Amino acid sequence: MSRLIINPLNKKSKINKEVYGHFSEHLGRGIYEGIFVGKTSDIPNVNGIRRDVVKALKHIKVPVLRWPGGCFADTYQWQDGIGSPDKRKRMINTNWGGVVEDNSFGTHEFLDLCQQVGCEPYITANMGTGSVREMTDWLEYLTSDADTPLTQRRKENGREKPFPVKYWGIGNENWGGGGNMLAQQYAYEYRKYSAFCGPSRLYRIACGANEDDYQWTDTLMKLLTIPAAFHTEVFEGLSMHYYTAVGGLQQKGHATEFGADEYYELLKRTMYMDELLTRHSTIMDVYDPDRRIGLVVDEWGIWHKAMEGENPAFLYQQNTMRDAVSAAVTLNLFNRHSERVVMANLAQMVNVLQSLILTQDDKIVRTPTYHVFDLYKVHQESTLIDSFIETSEIEGMKAIHESASMDEKGNINITVCNLDYDRSRDLDVLLVETGIEAAEAQLLQGRPQEYNTFAAPDNLKLQKMETVITERGVRLMLPPCSVTRLTVIPKGAK
After folding, report:
1. Which stretch of DSSP H or E encloses residue 216?
2. Which of 225, 331, 334, 369 has the fewest other C-beta atoms within 10 Å?
3. 293-306, pLDDT tens digit by residue?
4. Has residue 200 got a pLDDT over 70?
């Protein structure tokens, strides 16, 4: 019997809703077909944006969406994606397959998508092949209410009022495809770009490290926490990227054909996120002890080999219960590091890498990872509370992984993963000095290799789970390879 001890009296940091954010890039069928089908499509849409996808995203309360990349942002010219669609400039997508990009999905379409979903836009500016002037023009076009040629152009394109853009990334992976810069070089370039970002209401996000490049983080924190003129701050967030892959990104494993060894390898690589968050946060604490600057994990997820028969540059892959458990562990870790992690963006939202949704013509499939985000949405804007698991280890990991939070009504939400490949585990959840009025649980379970298809879209879905209220808490039976959300209503809760 495993024991999970929850102490609701020990309240910790707020879990920002933006931790449950997403990312969508001009890559393969991520935008076109996946989100945008055009106004004349037979697939039901609003302004060319799929109704079924928007409905699914609203259900899980997507809080923020990053766009246009990713690597695509490094060559994106924003003015190519505004105005009449039939007059927009066509280009070659040199990053992802060399296909023609017609720019029919641009700034207005993206911000319309965000409005339909009800989420905040997070725009990444082009530092790779762009310029400060190009970025400032885009900001003026988007956010200014002055009477200028650029704002007049925005109005001619159908938007009278400024767009409500808050999150602004300056560059993408500038240590790699975004310019092959050294950390010092990027820091100096960033300070220049940041100086022209205009309104202080922008949340400016600097390009942070690739995985465990702690020197990059140290250099940027050292150089960017030196106040600019008039002692103003120059950034609010620092990004980090980490992809989980069996054998590493150079090798990658198969999405659906694997055994127990590869299953556990993927989960161990998922757990590495804990070390990354801890060590990057520790460096940030040296320069920012008050934690004014947020850590933004704006690309994370699982990278398998592309599905056979698909263009390998389109990064289309299936999504199994193994991926769902990995996503759940990662979200637990973000919750547990919420004193520093303020945003995260799963790569990617539709039809690319660890997708929430797969599309085929007028059909959609909600992946197991989608259902994890459905289970975990209760953590958004809640307060992390203390939790401790007593359980056996398997393959060097604790067999059960968890996080817990309290919402504004005083209800306690506990998300628990049984990492075991083929063994169920009994769990006693014990609450410190807390009486229980009621408890209910939902569950996602299946064999590690199982997934949803267009022929069987509900093969894996959320199920109601039995709970037994005990004298001190709640007792659960966790199936192997499963994710559970337990909601406890304490006595005296609102």
Report:
1. helix 214-224
2. 225
3. 999 999 999 999 99
4. no
Query: What does 103-120 look like in DSSP terms, one character per residue?
Result: --S-HHHHHHHHHHHT-E
- Contact status, residue 318 vs residue 256, Cβ threshold 8 Å: yes
pLDDT for the residue numbered 472? 86
Residue 192 scores a pLDDT above 80 = yes
Indicate the angle between helix axes 132-143 and 183-195, nearest 10 degrees.
Answer: 40
Known catalytic residues are 173, 299
What is the per-residue pLDDT for 165? 95
Record the tokens describing residue 154, joined without a space. 């925005």
Residue range 106-132: average pLDDT?
A: 97
Tens-place pLDDT, residues 172-184: 999 999 999 999 9
Token pair, residue 487, equals 């909601």
Cα atoms in the 13 Å half-sphere on the side-chain side of 328: 33
Q: How far is CA 26 from the centre of its chain?
A: 16
- Structural tokens at position 118: 């009800």
Give dist(CA 95, CA 392) in Å, integer. 45
Whether the pLDDT of residue 45 is over 80: the answer is yes
Distances (CA, A) of 13 to 17, 277, 334, 386, 486: 12, 15, 11, 10, 20
pLDDT grade, residue 198 (50/70/90)? confident
Q: Which two tokens stand for residue 57?
A: 């995203």
Question: Which tokens sit at 305?
Answer: 């080999």
> Does residue 395 surpass a pLDDT of 60?
yes
Strands 49-50, 45-46: pairing is: antiparallel
* Cβ neighbours for 439, distance < 8 A, ≥ 6 positions apart: 467, 469, 474, 486, 487, 488, 489
The single-letter code of the amino acid at 118 is: G
For tokens 């029919």, what's the residue? 104
The CA angle 384-14-8, to the nearest 5 degrees, is 30
Q: How many residues are given for the chain? A: 494
- Per-residue pLDDT for 228 more than 70? no
Q: Is 230's pLDDT higher than 60? A: no
Helix (H, G, I), strand (E, B) or coil at 13: strand
Alpha helices by DSSP H, listed for 337-386, are: 368-376
Cα Rg, the chain, nearest whole Å: 23
Q: Is the pLDDT of residue 484 over 80?
A: yes
The rounded distance, in Å, linking the Cα atoms of 46 and 300 is: 29
Render 29-59 in DSSP notation, one character per residue: TSSBTTTB--TT-SS-EETTEEHHHHHHHHH
Enter the tokens of residue 228: 């600019």
Question: Please, which residues bridge with residue 426 across strands?
Answer: 477
Instruction: Note whether 26 and 90 are within 8 A (CB).
Output: no
- How far apart are the C-alpha atoms of 380 and 2, rounded to whole Å? 27
